[in-house]
Amino acid sequence: MKKSLMLYLFILAILMNVFTYMFYSREVKFGQERYDKTTKKLRDSINLVTTQLADANYFSLEHNENAQNYFDNTASGGKVILYEKLIPVVTEKLLDLNANPNGNPYTGQDKIGPNKFIINKVKILNHRWIIADYSNGELWGEVLLKYFVDNDDKITFEVNQTWLYQK
């Protein structure tokens, strides 16, 4: 009786080991497959976001080599204006005009009510164009500006078109 009990326990132990081995080997395989699927999804998402970002930045001075070359005047005896330094200077100069008590004059809008129109967001498209978002807290709009950099590094702006959205 003792021998048969030992035999049953031995068989039971072998079965437990086989089932445990199968469970853990399949768990590792399942984990690896799940990791591979997740990694593929993440790579696809990163590629999609990278493509969308490249498309969104297509119209920007940072990615437009022809517009960047416009600021290289060494061939005509002029100087080079680095676009990396120009972008924050132009943006800051335009946003500094928000301090005007009647609002930023380059929104193309007069003050309506107690709130003045100020520029919130600026995107420099190329060597000549800027698009900006503006609001007075209640109304929102967009403006297309021209900007010029003269030989003395003076920056001037000109409103080309403005659009105020209805409430």
Explained architecture:
By secondary structure, the chain is of the alpha+beta class. It is 45% helix and 20% strand. It contains 3 helices and 4 strands. It has helices spanning 2-56, 65-70, 83-96, and strands at 118-124, 129-135, 140-149, 155-164. A 4-stranded antiparallel beta sheet has the order 1-2-3-4, covered by helices on one side. A hairpin with a 4-residue loop joins strand 1 (118-124) and strand 2. It is elongated. The N and C termini lie far apart (92 Å). The mean pLDDT is 89. Keywords: Membrane, Transmembrane, Transmembrane helix. This is Hydrolase.
How many DSSP helices? 3
Number-wise, the strands total 4
SSE pattern: HHHEEEE
Sequence stretches where pLDDT stays below 50 over 5 or more residues: none
Tell me, what's the shape?
elongated
Distance between the termini: 92 Å
Q: What strand order characterises the main sheet?
A: 1-2-3-4
Question: Largest beta sheet, briefly?
Answer: 4 strands, antiparallel
Mean pLDDT: 89
Radius of gyration: 32 Å
Task: Find the structural class using helix and strand composition.
Answer: alpha+beta
% residues in beta strands: 15-25%
**Helicity range:** 40-55%
What can be said about this structure in brief?
It comes from Flavobacterium azizsancarii. By secondary structure, the chain is of the alpha+beta class.
